[in-house]
Design goal:
single chain; 2 domains; NAD; 9 strands; 6PGD_dom2; 6-stranded parallel beta sheet; elongated; N-(1-d-carboxylethyl)-l-norvaline Dehydrogenase, domain 2; 53% helix; Rossmann fold
Length: 296
C-alpha cells in the first residue's frame, strides 16, 4: 500500500480520496485552504498544514482542484508541492486544466527528479463515488505503470493517451463531444415541444433509433423533468469549453460549434444557472426562444 498525498477534497476529490482509503492506502491531506474532511480523518488520514508537507510525506501526490491557476498555486506557490519533492516521487494532476499549462508544469516537476502524470477524469460525482471514473493519462509509461494500482481504485476505463499534456487534451476533447451532444438533444427537444409534440414521447421514439445515446437517455430525461441539480456543474463545463477555444486559437483552428455551445452556457449562467447540472443548457435555449418545453 502507498502513502498518498491528496490535495483537493471537494465534490469529486472527496469520494476519490475515500476510495483510495478503502483500498488500504494511507492519505495525507493539506489544510492550506481549509479543514480536511472529518470522514477522511476519522478513517485514518493525516492532516498537514501545507502542500509542501504533504509532498514530503507521500510517495504519490494527487491534485484535484477546479482550474489551472489553482493547480499552479498548489504546485509552485509558497510552500507548494514542488518545494517538498524528492526524486522518483510522482505528482498526479487529476484536475481538468489547460493542456499547454500542463506541459509547462510537467517540465518543471520533472526537472526536480520527480515524475508527473496528468490524469483528468470523466464520470462526474456518481462515477467518483462508484470508483468507475474514466481516466485519461499523459506521461511516461513507466510512471503510468507505477500509478496504475492507485488509478484503478478510482476508475475503470484508464488509458495512457500519450505524453504529458495528452491526458488533458483528451479531456478537453471529451468535453467538446459531451457539450455538443447535450446541445443537440436540447435543440431537438425544444424543436419538438415548440411544434406541439410531447418531448417525452419524442425522446422515447428517438431512443429506439440511430439518434439513441447516453446523453439523450440521461440528460434528455433531466431536460424534460426540469431536474438540474448537479451533477457536473454547468459553469465547470463552460470553463472546459473555454480551454478548448483557447487551445484552438493557439493551434490556429476554428471550432464553430464549440463556440456556439459555449455562448449558450453563458446565457444559462446569466439567467442564474451557473450551479445547475450541465443538462440545464436547455434553459439557455428556452430563454432565447421565450418558451419552455415543460408545462408550467
Amino acid at each position: 500500500m502507498a502513502n498518498i498525498g491528496f490535495i483537493g477534497t471537494g465534490i469529486m476529490g472527496l469520494p476519490m480520496a475515500a476510495n483510495l482509503q478503502k483500498a488500504g492506502h494511507q492519505l495525507f491531506l493539506s489544510e492550506h485552504h481549509g479543514k480536511a474532511p472529518a470522514e477522511l480523518i476519522s478513517a485514518g488520514a493525516v492532516a498537514l498544514a501545507t502542500p509542501q508537507q504533504v509532498a514530503r510525506e507521500a510517495e504519490f501526490i494527487i491534485v484535484m482542484v477546479p482550474d489551472t491557476p489553482q493547480v499552479e498555486d498548489v504546485l509552485f506557490g509558497a510552500n507548494g508541492v514542488a518545494t517538498g519533492l524528492s526524486p522518483d516521487k510522482v505528482v498526479i494532476d487529476m484536475s481538468s486544466i489547460s493542456p499547454t499549462a500542463t506541459k509547462a508544469f510537467a517540465a518543471k516537476i520533472n526537472e526536480t527528479g520527480a515524475r508527473y502524470l496528468d490524469a483528468p477524469v470523466s464520470g462526474g460525482e456518481v462515477g467518483a463515488r462508484a470508483g468507475s471514473l474514466s481516466i485519461m493519462v499523459g506521461g511516461q509509461p513507466q510512471t503510468f505503470e507505477r500509478a496504475l494500482p492507485l488509478l484503478q481504485s478510482m476508475g475503470k476505463n484508464i488509458t495512457l493517451v500519450g505524453g504529458n499534456g495528452d491526458g488533458q487534451t483528451a479531456k478537453v476533447a471529451n468535453q467538446i463531444i459531451v457539450a455538443l451532444n447535450i446541445q443537440a438533444v436540447a435543440e431537438a427537444l425544444l424543436f419538438a415541444a415548440k411544434n406541439g409534440a410531447d418531448p417525452a414521447r419524442v425522446r422515447d421514439a428517438l431512443m429506439g433509433g440511430f439518434a439513441a445515446s447516453r446523453i439523450l437517455e440521461v440528460h434528455g430525461e433531466r431536460m424534460i423533468n426540469g431536474t438540474f441539480e448537479p451533477g457536473f456543474r454547468i459553469n465547470l463545463h463552460q470553463k472546459d469549453l473555454n480551454l478548448a477555444l483557447a487551445g484552438a486559437k493557439e493551434l490556429g483552428i476554428n471550432l464553430p460549434n464549440t463556440a456556439a455551445t459555449q455562448q449558450v452556457f453563458s446565457t444559462c449562467r446569466a439567467i442564474g444557472g451557473g450551479n445547475w447540472d450541465h443538462s440545464a443548457l436547455i434553459k439557455g435555449l428556452e430563454h432565447m426562444a421565450n418558451f419552455s418545453i415543460r408545462a408550467e
